[in-house]
Every structure is written in C-alpha cells, then in structure tokens.
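Journal club prep, notes for RB
We'll compare a predicted complex against what the paper describes. Inputs for the nicotinamide-adenine-dinucleotide case:
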Amino acid sequence: MLKKMSALVTGSTSGIGLGVARALAAEGADVVLNGLGDRDEIETIRAGVERDFGVKALYDGADMTKPAEIIEMIERTQGAFGKLDILVNNAGIQHVAPIAEFPTEKWDAIIAINLSSSFHTIRAAFPGMKERKFGRIINIASAHALVASPFKSAYVAAKHGVYGLIKVVALEGAEFGVTANAICPGYVKTPLVEKQIPDTAKARGMSEEEVVQKVILAAQPTRNFVAIEEVAALTVFLASPNSGSITGAAYQIDGGWVAQ
Ligand code: NAD
C-alpha cells in the first residue's frame, strides 16, 4: 500500500514509534528511524527492518530538543530518498509531579520534545510536500491532547498544543494534498508508561499495583492497555493515499477513555 513512499518516524528506537516504523515498512515504505539509545541495539533494529521487509531503512540520531539537528535530519531524509511523503511525529517523554514541585527543566524538555520538535519537522518538510502535492503528517498525540489528568502539566499542555498545531497544518495543506492528523492513544504499555508508574505512586500516595489498576486501567473502560499494533495500523491507514480527505482530525484510540 505504501510502495515507493518514504517515511520518517521520530522517536522510533522504542515503543510506539518502532511499531509504527515497522508497520510502514511492512507496507513497502522506506523509513528513517530516529531516537536515542545504544548504537549497537539501534543498528540491530535498523538492519531488522531492512531484512524483514525488504525496504531501505536509515537511522538518524537527531536530538529532538535541537532545532538545527531536526532541520538537518529532514534535509538528510529528503536527500537520501529524494522526497519525504510520510512524517510521523512520535518522539515524546513524560514527567509526573504536582505543579508546585514540577521541575522547570522537565517542563522545558517536554515542551521541546513533545511539541516544538513537531513544529520544526513540519516546518522543514512542508515545502517539499506542498510542491509535490502529496504529504501525510501524523502526530502520535495522546488522549491527553483532549482531556487532562492531574500531575502531568507539561505533557497535557504539550499534547493539547500538538492538536492545535495539527489543525493549523491541515488548513495550510488542504489545497496541496498534504494532510495532518493526530492519533490520540490511551495507555499503551511501553517504557514511557512503565517509567511513570513509580512517580505516579508517589504523587498519589498509592502502591505501584494500585496505580496500574486504579489510575491507568481505570481510565479506560476496556480495562486493557491499547496495543502498539493498533496504533501502528491506524497510522498506516492515515498514511495511505486513499485517506486524502481525512485531515485536521484527532483519532481517539483509547478504549473509550475520552467518551466518559
Ligand atoms: P518510549 O519511551 O517507548 O519511546 C519514546 C521514543 O522517543 C524513544 O525512541 C526515544 O529514544 C525517543 N526520544 C526521547 N527523547 C528524544 C530526543 N530528545 N530526541 C530524539 N528522540 C527522543 O515511549 P512511547 O510510549 O512509545 O511514546 C511514543 C509517543 O507516544 C510519545 O509521544 C508519547 O507521548 C505518545 N503516547 C504514549 C502513550 C503510552 O501510553 N505509552 C499514550 C499516548 C501517547
């Protein structure tokens, strides 16, 4: 479905981003992987994508807190593949703390990685997409783009901002074949969620098991984590040529969380 297309997925060395990159590659897209981590492990992941799906897979180590590196990554991608058709803004981090104790440097890092990096990737990729009259911009936002939870001030602010950004880009791209959409997952079991369980337990005065049952899964009427594969499948759908009229949308994939 995505043969001859090229895709870049930020934060794709782990979790949802890796699942999305592999799903795009499974449909025939060449992919650029990005994210932090051990270089040998990343090379194993990159080579695995090429081996499993017979596409080209590159790795770019741009740091999503650094605008100049982000711009260079987009330029390198366009240089390597001749174009960038599918941009998935996925890189993200979390920090959980009451607002009066929320570290300022965590606020700055979350706004930079979870929100501003999308501005920089889109700003750099948009002209080429517009010129070629085709582009698919997909942000892995969150249910927290639509509703709030206590103790996640930076994350909720950044994700609400992402949805606003996506709506603007949808309007600017509408006449040029460039769509922009947000995917809003509920809780997906990845390192990002596993790492916040101890801090949430501390902030709420609960055990870690209580956090999983009474905070995380209590938010989702299905009482199940969302699967990485489900988020990846929705991304593939939004990336495909026949989703051209879907733009400016926020797709909830949250086990019913936001419906409550
Ligand atoms: P994860 O921790 O497994 O992966 C995050 C990825 O971002 C990693 O590849 C990491 O290396 C990369 N990253 C972090 N800082 C970076 C930086 N400065 N520069 C480049 N890459 C960087 O987390 P995940 O759960 O897969 O999260 C992916 C996205 O999905 C995030 O935007 C997150 O907010 C969103 N999301 C996650 C959940 C969930 O429950 N896990 C729910 C909703 C939305």
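Talking point for the session: Residues 104-132 form the longest helix (29 residues).
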